[in-house]
Amino acid sequence: FEVFQQIDTQGGHDIEHFEVDGNHYLAVANYFNDVSRNIQSTIYVLQQGRFEVFQQVDTVGAYGVEHFEVDG
Fold first, then answer.
1. Which residue, 27, 57, 63, is CA-closest to 43?
2. Contact in structure between 30 and 42 (CB atoms under 8 Å)
3. Which of residues 46 and 1 earns the better pLDDT score?
4. CB-based contacts of 55, cutoff 8 Å, min separation 6
5. Is residue 38 classed as helix, strand or coil in its secondary structure?
6. Roughly how many angstroms between the first and final C-alpha of the chain, as a whole number?
7. How far is CA 42 from CA 1, 10, 46, 60, in A?
8. CB 29 within 8 A of CB 62
9. Handedness of CA 6, 24, 63, 31 (dihedral sign)
10. Which of 21, 33, 22, 24 is nearest to 62 (CA)?
11. What confidence tens digit (pLDDT) does each residue in 8-65 have?
12. What pTM was estimated for this model as a whole?
C-alpha cells in the first residue's frame, strides 16, 4: 500500500468509507482527546483528490461508525 493522505484523529477508534451520489466520504469515530470523551467525530468528503472536513458530530467516546441508507 501507498499512503494516500494522513487523517488527524482524537483517539480514533473506527473509520468507515461510504458513497452518496458518487461522492466519497470517510466517517471517523473519535474516542478521547487526552482531556475528555465529549468530543466531535468527523465526516470527511473527497474533494479535488483530498479528504476535507464535511461535518462534525458531537459524540461521547465514540467507538464505531456505520453508514446506512434511508429510502425516500
1. 27
2. yes
3. 46
4. 42, 43
5. strand
6. 38
7. 24, 10, 13, 13
8. yes
9. positive
10. 33
11. 999 999 999 999 999 999 999 999 999 999 999 999 999 999 999 999 999 999 999 9
12. 0.90
